[in-house]
Amino acid sequence: MCRLLGVVSRQTAPLSDLLAEDITQFLSLAYEHGDGWGIASLAPDGTVTSVKEPVPAGTSDRIQDAMRTTTTDAAILHLRMASPGLTLRPGNTHPFGDTHVAFAHNGDFSPASCLDDVIGDDLLAGAEGGTDSERFYLAVRRRIGEGLEPPKAILATAADIGALATRFASLNCLLLTPAALYAYTAHDPYSDVIRRRGKDFFALNYRRSSDSIIIASTGWPQPAPLWSRLPEGQVLEIRRDDLSTVMHRG
Fold first, then answer.
1. What is the spatial order of strands in the sheet that 102-106 belongs to?
2. What pTM was computed for the model?
3. How far from 177 is each of 39, 100, 127, 205, 232, CA to CA, in Å?
4. What is the pLDDT of residues 142-185, one digit of tens each?
5. Got the DSSP string for the chain?
6. With helix as H, strand as E and coil as C, how does 192-217 read?
7. Cα(35)–Cα(27) distance, rounded to whole angstroms?
8. What are residue 219's phi and psi, to 5 degrees?
9. 135 near 117, Cβ under 8 Å?
10. Alpha-carbon torsion 134, 233, 155, 42, what sign?
11. Closest to 133 (Cα-Cα) out of 180, 176, 78
């Protein structure tokens, strides 16, 4: 299982500044979630850029450089804990995406091939790796490319996984576009992971200030009312232009 962190800010600044309250505690989770890291952010021209490595964030000089030199107002970060049998290589490392979108997932489902008919042979041929998470992204990307709004694309793909997969632990994800950051949470409350880690392990919490909104997986203190829980099965849209939020239901 993985850890997610996202930010949208009114100000453009280095990521190390935008996430100053949380980044040390988030990166400390790499002692367990140490199978890779990735950052996707919005560049000044509105394109999505990313950097990632299949190495522990805690031993990477590159992530420290990226935190200092990436100047943006919106970004997502991912710490990977690889599912058994999935290799550690760039193509399996999150975020996935292109210059228009970036996507990071926390969880797993099987079989990964359950989404292949939705994705289509053309997008499958361009897959970077072999993870279920990338197929989740590709199915969402297919729907966005066909004109579906991002929240509906996420909800429709999650519904497909629920109907077609034989099992899933969590479908938590973050999707970054030039317009907004989208966060979705859904998990199986009876999964082995929940039995081992507790009912809040897959929660996504978000914190609003006058200048930014942060959304994160659990792993460090996130007390209410400072932090709010994202409801299960819903997509939180955080608009980049004014920090307004909309909750989308399936």
1. 96-97, 102-106, 172-176, 180-185, 234-239, 245-249
2. 0.96
3. 14, 6, 20, 20, 22
4. 999 999 999 999 999 999 999 999 999 999 999 999 999 999 99
5. --EEEEEEEEEEEEHHHHTTTTHHHHHHGGGTS-S-EEEEEE-TTS-EEEEEESS-GGG-HHHHHHHHH-EEEEEEEEE--PPTT---SGGGSSPEE-SS-EEEEES-EE-GGGGHHHH-HHHHHT-SS--HHHHHHHHHHHHHHTT--HHHHHHHHHHHHHHH-SEESB-EEEEE-SSEEEEEE-B-TTSHHHHHH-TTTT-EEEEE-SSEEEEEESSS---TTTSEEPPTTEEEEEETTT--EEEEE-
6. HHHHHHCCCCCCEEEEECCCEEEEEE
7. 13
8. 145, -15
9. no
10. negative
11. 78
pLDDT tens string 49-59: 999 999 999 88
> What domains does the chain contain, in order, with CATH numbers?
3-105+173-244 (3.60.20.10)
